[in-house]
Design a protein that fits this description.
Layout (H helix, E strand, L loop, with lengths): L8 E10 L2 E11 L4 E6 L5 H8 L7 E6 L2 E3 L4 H6 L2 E4 L11 H6 L10 H14 L15 H14 L4 E5 L7 H16 L3 E5 L3 H7 L2 E6 L2 E7 L5 H9 L6 E4 L7 E11 L5 E11 L2 E6 L6 H8 L7 E6 L2 E3 L4 H7 L1 E4 L14 H5 L10 E2 L2 E2 L1 H14 L16 H13 L5 E5 L7 H17 L2 E5 L3 H7 L2 E6 L2 E7 L5 H8 L17 E4 L15
Parallel strand pairs: 3-8, 3-9, 6-7, 7-8, 14-21, 14-22, 17-20, 20-21
Antiparallel strand pairs: 1-2, 1-4, 4-5, 9-10, 11-24, 12-13, 12-15, 15-16, 18-19, 22-23
Length: 535
């Protein structure tokens, strides 16, 4: 890439405003053909907004867009794709009941005159050309998450995109899938494509990107080569201060059992067994991490404890109170806080305000309600206090949460669940998609709740997070807990073996006192791209 080459695209002085907030403030940003260019920034820094402008989803209030040196104006994503720009969003936009080939051509002109066999051949050839192996005749619902991502990329490539914007593309991938995906990206840029890589994972950015542009509070603060950069330097550019990558974690001070699962059984959404006789005890003052390959019962386990999924057999005890048919209402009353994995669907009411979402569990409190009447002034004050305490970035407490970035929405949910000091806190993927600053804050909050005496169940696909945050690790395999070991006895190799159904030499199922250790607050590792669960 030569500095004097005409950029593949260039944004000049782009400004985008929403009511009460300037999402992008005179941002300039450019990338070359044959380049992987990362876009970094905290949650709410304006990354997705800027790329939505580039991909035609938003129209800039000010500024100019140039593609291969020619000024363009987009009225829709269709205009952008005609110019060669395509965006793969973090949340896929596929029709599950249709085939891969049907999804690839969905919405294209001339859809009533299409030749299905020819399209399947073309999609198959393109998938091989770009290292995105997929069966064009497979139904989308039959595909893994990683395979669905390939379909989204093929959609853009089939439409002629040579500038590809990827929003958090590895958030749902296993380490093996991530390595394959990176090989695909390198192949694409070697053929002259341009890739914009939006991510919070600094180790992955350093491993895959040629250059990085950093946004902070809606403004571009730096564009640097990744060569010679460290994750600490990148984190400081993102946050505007030094980020602590570790913190001394006190030894666990175990209290009485606060959460007990006795032979719990539950089914998945297809009616198949998901939990097979789960028995587990979590004491006050400890974090028990649940490790396992995605799809081995983690979601069902969290939902059963939160009362959101029917329990077929067994019992749950919270501070000695026994439940055989738990519901959300009686688990809330028992003191269970629940942070689900899907923050936008299960964890919040998207069209309601921050105030209303923070108050979803407070409506039963006499301090908030007077009979059937809600004391809106008190509820608003509660929201203002929590927004300040948890550093939630939003125009106002009246803002619908659907307008928040993922990190700020996660803070709203955590604020709601932690505010009333729960006896038990179930957190599913609490730092997924969060920037380094937000991750630091979330992990500090969890440690503070643990030190306060709460029993915390931590479910995460970030194996490094499990190893460093947990006092004890329970490994889930095919709906069963196959081992339960002190974190001091765990390492990547041991837990990885257990996750695939193997056995360790010296198993231990008794909770023990954890030794002081340094807790990584960012979930990144410079040795290899993330340590999420893999098959």
């Amino acid at each position: 890439m030569m500095a004097n080459e005409t950029p593949a695209f260039e944004l000049r002085g782009v400004t985008k405003r929403f009511p009460g907030v300037v999402a992008n403030d005179r941002v300039s940003f450019a990338a070359q053909a044959g380049e992987i260019h990362a876009l970094l920034g905290e949650n709410g820094a304006g990354k997705s907004t800027l790329m939505n402008v580039l991909s035609g989803l938003y129209h800039a209030d000010e500024g100019e867009i140039y593609v291969h040196g020619r000024r363009v104006a987009f009225r829709s994503p269709r205009d952008a794709i005609r110019t060669g720009i395509g965006m793969v969003h973090q949340h896929f936009m596929l029709v599950p009941s249709q085939t891969v080939a049907e999804n690839v051509v969905l919405g294209m002109p001339g859809r009533f005159l299409l030749n299905p066999a020819q399209i399947e051949r073309e999609v198959g050839q393109m998938s091989q050309q770009f290292g995105l192996p997929i069966d064009p005749t497979a139904k989308v619902w039959q595909l893994s998450v990683g395979e669905q991502q390939r379909v989204e990329i093929l959609k853009m490539l089939y439409r002629g995109a040579d500038i590809l914007i990827l929003d958090e593309p590895t958030a749902v991938l296993t380490p093996q899938e991530t390595r394959i995906f990176f090989a695909t990206l390198r192949m694409m840029v070697s053929q002259g494509k341009t890739v914009i890589f939006i991510s919070h994972k600094l180790d992955e950015v350093l491993a895959i990107a040629h250059r990085v542009t950093v946004l902070r509070a809606g403004r571009s603060v730096a564009t640097v080569d990744t060569a010679g950069m460290t994750r600490s330097q990148l984190a400081s550019l993102m946050v505007g201060r030094e980020v602590l990558f570790s913190i001394e974690k006190r030894p666990a001070r175990l209290g009485a059992p606060r959460l007990r699962l006795d032979h719990v059984e539950a089914q998945d959404d297809k009616g198949l067994p998901a939990l097979r006789g789960i028995s587990l005890t979590v004491h006050g003052g400890e974090i028990v991490g649940i490790a396992g390959v995605a799809g081995n019962g983690q979601r069902e386990l969290a939902e059963v404890i939160g009362g959101a999924r029917v329990m077929q057999r067994g019992a749950i005890q919270v501070d000695g109170k026994r439940f055989v048919h738990p519901t959300p209402a009686n688990m809330i009353a028992a003191g269970v806080g629940y942070v689900p994995e899907d923050r936008r669907v299960s964890g919040s009411a998207p069209n309601l305000s921050i105030t209303e979402n923070i108050g979803l569990k407070a409506y039963r409190s006499p301090a908030i309600t007077n009979g059937w009447l809600v004391r809106w002034g008190r509820l608003a004050q509660r929201a203002r206090n929590l927004v300040r305490t948890y550093a939630i970035v939003a125009p106002s407490i009246a803002t619908p949460v659907r307008k928040l970035s993922g990190g700020n929405l996660q803070k709203v949910i955590l604020a709601r669940e932690i505010a009333d000091k729960p006896a038990v806190l179930v957190t599913a993927y609490p730092t997924r998609g969060l920037d380094v600053g937000a991750t630091e804050q979330v992990r500090r909050l969890l440690l503070a709740e643990r030190d306060r005496g709460a029993a915390i169940l931590l479910i995460s696909e970030d194996l490094e997070e499990i190893l460093l945050m947990s006092d004890r690790i329970a490994v889930l395999y095919e709906g069963e807990i196959v081992d339960n070991l002190p974190a001091s006895e765990a390492d990547l190799a041991t837990v990885g073996l257990l996750m695939t159904g193997g056995k360790r030499t010296h198993a231990s199922s008794a909770p023990g006192k954890a030794q002081p250790r340094s807790v990584a607050l960012t979930g990144v590792d410079t040795e290899s791209p993330n340590h999420r669960m893999s098959q």
